[in-house]
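Researcher: Checking consistency across runs. Here is IP01917p again:
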Amino acid sequence: MWSIRRLSLQKLAKLQAIHNSLWQAIRCLECYFQLSLITLLMKFFIDTSALPYWLYLSRVEHTRVAVQHYVATVECIKLLEIVVPCYLCTRCDAMQRKFLSMFYTVTTDRRSSQLNAALRSLNLQLSQEKYKFSAGGMVDINTEMLGKFFFGMISYIVICIQFSINFRAKKMSNEQMSQNITSTSAPI
C-alpha cells in the first residue's frame, strides 16, 4: 500500500512539474509575440471588416463572379484564422477548470495526509495559474474576445454599407438636379 502512495506522490510531482513547464511556455510565448500578436489581431480586424464591404461593392458594381468568389474565400480563411485559436484557447481554459474540479473532488476522501497535501498543492497551483493566452495583456484570446471581434466587425461593415448607400443616393439626386437645371435653363 505504501508503494502505491509513494508512486502516486511521484506522479503528482511530475504532473505538477509538467503543468509548471506548460504555464511557463505560455507566458514565454505571450511575452515573445506580444507586439506582433496585437498587430496581427488589428490586421485581422481590418481585413475581415474590409473584405465583406469590398464584396458588397463588387456586387453593386457588377464585377466578375470570379472576383466575388475569391473575396468570399479569402474572407472565410481569415475568419478561420481567428476562430480556431480562440476556440483552442477556450478549450484549454475549460480543461484546466475541469482538472481543478477533478483534483478538488479527489482530495475530499483521501486517508493519506501526504497525498492530500500534494493534491491540495496541485489544486492551488491550478487555481492560481490560469491557462489564458493574451495579446500583450490587452485582450484575452478566447471566445468572448471572438464575440466582441465579430460584433465590432459587423458594426463596421454596416456603417460602411450605410455610408455607401447614402453616398450613391446623394450622387444620384445631384445628377438629377443638374439634369433638371440644364433642361429648364435651355434657351427657347
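Researcher: Does this match what you'd expect to see?
Model: One thing to look at in this run: The radius of gyration is 29 Å.
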